[in-house]
Amino acid sequence: MRKFIGLIVVVMLAFVVTSINVEAKSKPVVSSFSWTEQSVDFGGDFNICVNGFHSFEYTIYAGQNKVAGSVVVSINANGDFVLNVDLIDGALASEAHLFVYSELSQLPVKRVAPGQAPYQLGSLGLNTFEYTVSTTELVDGDSFYFVFHMALVDEDVLNPSGVAGETAYVGGPNGPTSGSWFYAFGFEVIACDVVFEMPVIYVAFHAVYGEETVWALGELSFIELGLTNSRWGWQLTFDANPETFDLYAGAAQNDLSKGEFIGTLTLSWDGQYVTFTLQLADGVELSEIQIHVDYLPVDTISPGQLGYQASDAPFTSSWTVSLLPESDR
Q1: Spatial separation of the C-alpha atoms in residues 260 and 241, rounded to whole Å
Q2: Which pTM was predicted?
């Protein structure tokens, strides 16, 4: 996984529709090709409960066979689809177009012009972004089908990504073998067997960036907790699944204007393990990471005593780790 680049810009589009039964504006052309449940890509199941449902990961293909990134599809607390797009380094999506269907028979057998898509996002220029589609009702066991098109460009023409100028689709390769190519993917609504009641989990995340100390921004500072009279840093309370926190370097006296925003830390919980996922600004690498994660508040500000010491530095935005809270170890 994910798996929620310079400073990452997240674009949230909430398209409120009266029904999820969205059909392409032009009817499919009669063809010898036909979709089956076996030919539709239903992605890789993360087997992690997010808002009561499973989430899935799919591959983005450019020019039919070039891997251009991935998309994670999950369901948010409102019961809407959330598509998190993460392209390969150096690639940007200049446009995105999405068709959504509630029946397999509605999937087109010939590529429909992207401009006819009911969900469109132009002038993007983003390496990662989030696309939200509102729904009326999601029922365990139901399947939905998507055709997701993107137009790709290079972030830096002097350092080509290898996919610029290509048409890209999510899923597959599984589309028609003749005519204009396109792929489709499916999402099966799978409710978690057990929906866990989210506890309050206390976290302190410390790292080192160059010569600077890094802490994740939380609700209470160490000074407010009475752990120190002067040293900066914060305790997080993680009680919404998943949840994202900002990372700051060198924010002396807990003054963010003195520090540097270097990325985000996303926490998710599967009923046992807390998963930590970094999304760092372009060029940021961390040389150390120490973590306190427990059902009990932080009782020390010494990084070496926080409980977990990460190994195999340096750490980049692809870094993730899953930990049991200290009280469960």
Answers
A1: 26
A2: 0.57
Pairing of strands 143-154, 288-294: unpaired
* C-alpha dihedral sign at 27, 32, 37, 43: negative
Tally: H helices and E strands in the chain: 0, 21
E strand map for 63-127: 66-75, 81-87, 91-101, 119-126
Helices within 193-325 (DSSP H only): none
Spatial distance between the Cα atoms of 280 and 287, rounded to a whole number of angstroms: 13
Q: Is 157 left (phi over 0), alpha (psi -120 to 50) or beta?
A: alpha
Task: Report CA 285 to chain centroid distance, whole Å.
Answer: 20
Interatomic CA distance for residues 285 and 299, integer angstroms: 28
What pLDDT is attached to residue 271? Answer: 82
Q: Report whether 248 contacts 260 (CB < 8 A).
A: yes
Amino acid at 216: A
Domain boundaries, the chain: 14-188, 201-328
- 1-32 pLDDT tens trace: 333 333 233 333 333 333 344 444 344 444 47
pLDDT tens string 126-167: 999 999 999 888 889 999 999 999 999 999 999 999 999 999
Mean pLDDT, residues 203-232 taken together: 96
Query: Rounded distance, CA 106 to CA 20, Å?
Result: 12
Scanning the structure block, which residue is given the tokens 């365990």? 140
